[in-house]
């Protein structure tokens, strides 16, 4: 049986939309007529989804991070409660609030009923379920612990979303201050300074160097601002093109790990993702080499990913995981020590969870420290720029006043 999307009219003339299961579109229309409905459209849910995907290509994921976390949590809860997978997907399809989610769940259920595994069904929707998500689902199916894996996966998605939100909120205030400061300085240079300059033009007075420089900058801002925007756009395009190449990107990521303040944040964020994913995979009974490979794919820093590849080679040769990660000199020592303790006690998963939680809290602390440091620095920088502009305007006035006296 397959999932079909339908539109039909009831006896009251109201148009109804939904999803039903049938062997064919003709059988679906027969079902609707048996319910007293006049079918208008009966088509495969998968074809509808593919049509939407092609029409909205480039619009990003159809499932938001929040929706993905909620669906994963609901899947885990129903599976742990003992409900079969096809019935679980049916329940999620019926209670979905958004049409796209309803049709997505119905499409996946149709593929599962058709004999595909859950992971294979998710592969038909790669923009809604990324590679690591499907790898974890496949591991859960292989080990028979799909409900547990999905529960841990939901925890991971929720924690990851919360961490991203905290980091974004922490940097929101500095970004707002920077934007306002830029706007104020632009207004002063493009409007206030030229108005004051007109006063001194008629006096034929020799202006101080600071005032002359400020007038030149003001003239540039008023007449050549478009050139600055073009230059910035070209620079961004060049940088993105260079970083798209493997060699320069690897060199940049290596430098980023050693950068003051930002290096620790990048290292901490990637460590949290790596430890969390590796913990989920080991809990599901995934072999360590495969788990390392999958966990490494979550890293956004190419230098750390290269170190994970080296660690995989060492583990394959017989080296312990803690020693292999320790030799990379990339991950925090706390993570290496906790993994070593887990290897000694036979409970690596618990230690990976502790490492992830601890590094997450440390990342929040470092982020708050950085933003608390940036806020006064931005205010001082803004005050300094405004002070220079005020001095450039006041110095000719003071000199003119001295000449009059």
From TrEMBL:
Residues that span the membrane, as ranges: 167-193, 224-243, 373-398
Recorded topology in the membrane: Multi-pass membrane protein
GO biological process: protein secretion by the type II secretion system
Location in the cell: Cell inner membrane
Annotated Type II secretion system protein GspF domain residues: 72-194, 274-396
Keywords: Cell inner membrane, Cell membrane, Membrane, Transmembrane, Transmembrane helix
Predominant cellular place of this UniProt entry's protein: membrane
Alphabetized InterPro entries for the sequence: GspF/PilC (IPR003004), T2SS_GspF (IPR011850), T2SS_GspF_dom (IPR018076), T2SS_GspF_sf (IPR042094)
Pfam family, one: T2SSF
Family note: Belongs to the GSP F family.
Name of the protein described by the UniProt record: General secretion pathway protein F
Lineage: Bacteria, Pseudomonadati, Pseudomonadota, Betaproteobacteria, Burkholderiales
């Amino acid at each position: 049986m397959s999932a079909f999307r339908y539109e039909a009219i009831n006896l009251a003339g109201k148009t109804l939309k939904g999803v039903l299961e049938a062997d064919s579109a003709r059988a679906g229309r027969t079902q609707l007529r048996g319910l007293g409905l006049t079918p208008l459209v009966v088509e495969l849910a998968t074809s509808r989804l593919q049509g939407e995907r092609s029409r909205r290509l480039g619009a990003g994921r159809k499932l938001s991070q929040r929706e993905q976390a909620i669906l994963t949590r609901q899947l885990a809860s129903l599976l742990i409660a003992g409900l079969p997978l096809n019935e679980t997907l049916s329940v999620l399809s019926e209670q979905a609030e958004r049409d796209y989610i309803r049709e997505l769940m119905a499409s996946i259920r149709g593929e599962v009923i058709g004999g595909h595994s859950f992971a294979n069904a998710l592969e038909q929707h790669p923009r809604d379920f990324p590679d690591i998500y499907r790898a974890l689902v496949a591991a859960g199916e292989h080990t028979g612990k799909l409900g547990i894996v999905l529960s841990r996966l939901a925890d991971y998605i929720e924690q990851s979303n919360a961490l991203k939100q905290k980091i974004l909120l922490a940097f929101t205030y500095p970004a707002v201050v920077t934007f306002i400061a830029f706007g104020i300085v632009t207004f002063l240079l493009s409007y206030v300074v030229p108005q004051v300059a007109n006063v001194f033009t008629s006096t034929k007075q020799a202006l101080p160097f600071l005032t002359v420089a400020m007038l030149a900058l003001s003239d540039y801002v008023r007449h050549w601002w478009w050139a600055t925007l073009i230059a910035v756009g070209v620079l961004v395009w060049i940088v993105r093109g260079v970083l798209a190449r493997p060699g320069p990107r690897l060199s940049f990521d290596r430098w980023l790990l050693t950068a003051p303040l930002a290096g620790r944040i990048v290292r901490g964020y990637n460590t949290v993702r790596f430890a969390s994913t590796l913990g989920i995979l080991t809990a599901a009974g995934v072999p360590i080499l495969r788990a390392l490979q999958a966990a490494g794919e979550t890293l956004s820093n190419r230098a750390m990913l290269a170190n994970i590849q080296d660690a995989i080679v060492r583990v394959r040769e017989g080296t312990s995981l803690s020693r292999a990660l320790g030799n990379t000199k990339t991950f925090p020592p706390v993570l290496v020590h906790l993994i070593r303790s887990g290897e000694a006690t036979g409970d690596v998963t618990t230690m990976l969870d502790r490492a992830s939680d601890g590094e997450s809290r440390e990342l929040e602390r470092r982020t708050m420290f950085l933003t608390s440091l940036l806020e006064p620095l931005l205010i001082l920088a803004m005050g300094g720029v405004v002070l220079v502009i005020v001095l450039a305007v006041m110095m000719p006035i003071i000199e003119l006043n001295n000449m009059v006296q």
